[in-house]
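User: Quick sanity check before I run a bigger batch. Here is a single chain. Can you write out its predicted 3D structure?
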Amino acid sequence: MDVKSPRSVRRDGRVRGGAALEQSLGLGHYFATITKGNFMAKNQSSTLSEVKGRQSAPLITPTDLGTAASADIAGGMNAILADVFALYLKTKNFHWHMSGPHFRDYHLLLDEQADQLYAMTDPIAERIRKTGGSTLRSIGHIARVQRIKDNDAEYVAPNDMLAELREDNQTLAARLREVHDMVDEHRDIATASLIENWIDETERRTWFLFESSRRER
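Assistant: Done. Predicted structure follows.
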């Protein structure tokens, strides 16, 4: 049998030449590719739309406290959270850069106090989320909200470190009381209960810092 270029039988029974077949197969591949591309593009567009939808979905936890209460609690507690983070880092800063004859005692005291401050951060943030708000997202966010001042001095005398931290803790206690009054008005009993414990801890830190920095007469 004589082998020639590829051939195909058409519907009318006639033989179609190889070139025509190749062209037909090429068009079929082209349309298949286009169809696949359109499907992938549509699928990708749908995925992007879903992602954008999820990103724009509000992070509002349902609560019976109400929208106004939720906003007030988030505002007050986020400011407290920023102050606690600022005070935590300042306490660690002084812990790391402590010097002098009482180095060991002060070094360990500030490490203990820093741990106590850091332990406050997660419950504060989670309480904000539980009551329908959103909380801090970055170091920059903290810097915009914090009211306790940083201390970047090259050297700070040990007694000045203790005095500055004592004043910062006193200020924190006063602000905790202010927020306690506000959440009490909104009948947020759980937040008020947590704040009461934090006030006690803050007052204890103030006491220890005061006694540690007293000069012997």
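The longest strand covers residues 8-9.

User: Great, the batch can go ahead then.
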